[in-house]
Structure formats: C-alpha cells, structure tokens
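fold-stage: in
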Amino acid sequence: MTKKDRKVLLKAQQGELDAVLMYNALTAAVKRKKDARTFRQLAAEEGHHAAVFKKLTG
C-alpha cells in the first residue's frame, strides 16, 4: 500500500469514527425510543466500517 493510499484510508476511517460519535449524540438527543434504537444501530454499523479500515491501515 502506498503512503497516499494509506492516507486516504485513514481519512475514511476517521470519517467513520466521527459518524459513530454523531449517531451516539443523536441517540441521546431524541425522545422516541425507536429513533434512539435506529441511531444506535447506525453507530454500530459505522463502528464496523471503522474496524474494517483499521485492519487495512494497521
């Protein structure tokens, strides 16, 4: 993997981690339990994506 490729993947990984934080914050901000569950699920999915990138970037 080139340095440029790694840099791109690290940026994508950070984006996924930022999304986890955003969805978790939204979970705390909504009143409906259904909405909170949806945001928790989205956070988990984004966390999985970040983990995939971490395997690639080390």
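fold-stage: in (second)
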Amino acid sequence: MKLATALSERADLQRRISELSVRLNNNAKVQEGEQPSENPMELLKELDACLNRLEELIARINKTNNETKAGDFSITDLIARRDCLKERIRIMRGFLDASSEKVARYSKTEIRIFSTVPVSDLQKQVDTYSKQLRDTDEQIQELNWTTELK
C-alpha cells in the first residue's frame, strides 16, 4: 500500500469515527418503552474496530514518515517545515493586511496614520515563503505517492 493510500484511509477513518461518536450520543437514551434507532452496542463494536485500524495506520504512517528520506530530510521534517510555513504565511498576510489598510481622513486636521513596516518588501518575503510552501508540499505529495507504507 502506498503512503498516499494510507493517508486517505486515515482521513476516512477519522471522519467515520466522528460520525460514530455522534450516532452513539444520539442513541444513548430513549424514552421508556421505546427502542434506539441504532443498537449502541453494535456502534461501539464498529467504533472499536475503526479505532484499532486507525491506531495501526497512524503508527505505520509515522514510521514511514520518519524512515523515508528526501535528501537530508525525512517526510516528518518536510511536514514540520510545511506546517510552519503555512502558519508563517497566515500570520504575515494578516499583518500585511493590517499594515496596508488605508485609514480615511475626513479633514486635514485629523491625525495621519502610517504603516510601521515596508509593506512591499514584506509582501515579497511572503511570496518567497509561498513558493517554498508549494515546493515543499509538492515534494511531500510526490513522496506520498511513491513510498510504500512500512
């Protein structure tokens, strides 16, 4: 099984587990004389099976990510880099939006507001981070589709 297939199955299992949790809660209690719409014991069995499979997949995915190298970096290293680049870009874009926002003045006596940073220079930096993010993400995706799950 390829790593990408395992990642897809993991996502499906996580959605399934979330749905089972909701269904369990919906069938936790009934009025006297009524029956639940689904058997909670059967739902618990299904939940247990899904969680066991998820645990196995997560362990195998993590092992694969740690042991698979792309140059000097493991997939785990690349994922950490990607996640931090995403966060850096998100924060920088918010900051640049606030920095470049125009403040309307209704008369010449109102206080003028100026940006505290060179917005165009920082925007170029964000563009560089965005390219690094795309390159890193492509590298991860390529590895996901070419690496066998351990």
